[in-house]
Design goal:
By secondary structure, the protein is an all-alpha fold. Helix content is 77%, strand content 0%. The protein has helices at residues 3-27, 36-58, 70-86, 89-107. It is flat.
Length: 109
């Protein structure tokens, strides 16, 4: 890439990043009520994110082969318990991911 192309690429990336950060403040100013669909998405997306991660985690599981999906099952149970206890999506995702990585790399070889 030429210097001009590199600079143009950096500018476009910076502008897109700024726009994605500023757009919510422009669309939903502080003095106005948040639209119902945005509030709904704020409530629904954390559960949808965890559901998507569960599907991704178990898509390649073969119940007929060792370890029969045990690391996935234990990790899913941990995510569910942490989510019920803490009600914090980020903590639930981190705990489930870290536990799953430990299980597949150290326990179920």
């Amino acid at each position: 890439m030429t210097t001009t192309q590199v600079l143009l690429t950096i500018f476009v990336i910076a502008a897109a990043t700024f726009l994605t950060r500023a757009l919510p403040f422009l669309l939903f100013p502080a003095g106005r009520r948040t639209p119902g669909y945005v509030a709904y998405l704020g409530n629904a997306l954390p559960c949808a994110t965890i559901g998507m991660l569960i599907v991704y985690c178990v898509k390649g599981v073969s119940p007929s082969q060792w370890p029969h999906g045990l690391p996935e099952l234990v990790s899913i149970a941990a995510v569910a318990l942490v989510q019920l206890y803490r009600r914090n999506t980020l903590i639930s995702i981190v705990v489930g991911t870290v536990l799953y990585m430990i299980l597949i790399q150290k326990v179920f070889l």
